[in-house]
Amino acid sequence: MNALAATSRNFRQASRLLGLDSKLQKCLLIPFREIKVECTTPKDDGTLVTYVGFRVQHDNARGPMKGGIRYHPEVEPDEVNALAQLMTWKTAVANIPYGGAKGGIGCNPGDLSISELERLTRVFTQKIHDLIGIHTDVPAPDMGTNAQTMAWILDEYSKFHGYSPAVVTGKPIDLGGSLGRDAATGRGVLFATEALLNEYGKSIAGQRFVVQGFGNVGSWAAQLISEQGGKVIAVSDITGAIKNSQGIDIPNLLKHVKESHGVKGFSGADSIDPNSVLVEDCDILIPAALGGVINRDNAKDIKAKFIIEAANHPTDPEADEILAKKGVVILPDIYANSGGVTVSYFEWVQNIQGFMWDEEKVNTELKTYMTRGLKDVKEMCNTHNCDLRMGAFTLGVNRVARATVLRGWEA
Ligand SMILES: NC(=O)C1=CN([C@@H]2O[C@H](COP(=O)(O)OP(=O)(O)OC[C@H]3O[C@@H](n4cnc5c(N)ncnc54)[C@H](OP(=O)(O)O)[C@@H]3O)[C@@H](O)[C@H]2O)C=CC1
Ligand SMILES: O=C(O)CCC(=O)C(=O)O
After folding, report:
1. Structural domains in the chain plus CATH codes
2. Ligand 1 lined by 79 (C-beta under 6 Å)
3. Quick one: which of 161, 317, 319, 408 has the most CB atoms within 10 Å?
4. pTM for this one?
5. Of 145, 92, 81, 140, which Cα lies nearest the Cα of 118?
6. Residue 10 and residue 395 in contact, taking contact as beta carbons nearer than 8 Å
7. Ligand 2 centre distance from Cα of residue 358 (Å)
8. Does ipTM surpass 0.90 in this model?
9. Atom in ligand 1 nearest the alpha carbon of residue 181
10. Distance from CA of residue 358 to its chain's centroid?
11. Is 386 exposed, middle or buried (0-12, 13-18, 19+ CB in 10 A)?
């Protein structure tokens, strides 16, 4: 099932549980604005190349639209649309005053030089600068983009609108980025996992984890989990997959990845088939790469008891049903990975206030938001007698529906 069909199906199920009428459902589902732009830019050898860029602004009932920009070869309109919709429900679940958006460019950032990436980012910004802004739509990093990408967007945007650090989050600290934003999604995953395990009388220490994806989110999650005594027994990225049943030494793996640009060849673990990583024997599985990776083909073989969705939309609805029958507990993306956008919100607040928080304050506030988030989700599970995914969807959709009705959508 494609990402948009899957996300919209979850939305409709939540709307039915909430008893939303069909007109309001339609109004909430259809994006506010979908932008598609041509980005033609010279390569380093002077030849011209054209990429297609997207920004989908899904909803702004609760505040400025917010969401990352992804550079990946598989970026396509339906997926960006689904990811923008997920951002609307995610910011509502986190209870931060934002709507949802997402963007992307269909390119392989690994094939581009730094100067080619800079030119592409500047051309994309030139095409969308009049549609983003501090109080309209605030981009951030996602797969294939990082703090440097945000610095280029900030600089290009500022040429048109004056210096505006709050127009993007996830910036370098020297340009007004927040302490703790780089680690925030992984740290949020840690806090969410702790809060969930607490419900089962368990803690991180001694649990066996498998992490798919070792970029920003996966590597921070693995590092913070291992610091809490969790045993990360298998990890994968685009270069391959590795396993050590005794637990991988994450600080050493991080050094290896810095030097070798991937987990492949790490001497402290055995190489395994990347296709087997999701079905490895473990207690907790953390998908932290692409969407749709847990589907009807592999769900029945998953051995983890808990799945913490660090990635966006890693689990297909068909897999959800199979896993529910097996008793696997899934902590859904729109709650589990909300630590990133929550600290993005803290960054935006700091930029607007012109006052910088220390890292301890950022992390303490993040823990408060993540702990309260699970409590709110569980309350909806009790009210609607549903699983955690529907608990999160009903929570997010209900908050957006209430804001929409209060603002007077029937004009
Ligand atoms: N960054 C953030 O703050 C947030 C990110 N997310 C979500 O988390 C996920 C990861 O994002 P992020 O860490 O930022 O992205 P990064 O680009 O930093 O990292 C992505 C990781 O996934 C790996 N990867 C790509 N394809 C595969 C594959 N087929 N199998 C295994 N690994 C693969 C990449 O390998 P390689 O580097 O070798 O290509 C890399 O290790 C995405 O779904 C994103 O939407 C959610 C909330 C916030
Ligand atoms: O930090 C942000 O604004 C958005 C992060 C993001 O894209 C996501 O949560 O999926």
Report:
1. 31-163 (3.40.50.10860), 183-336 (3.40.50.720)
2. no
3. 319
4. 0.98
5. 145
6. no
7. 21
8. yes
9. 3
10. 24
11. middle
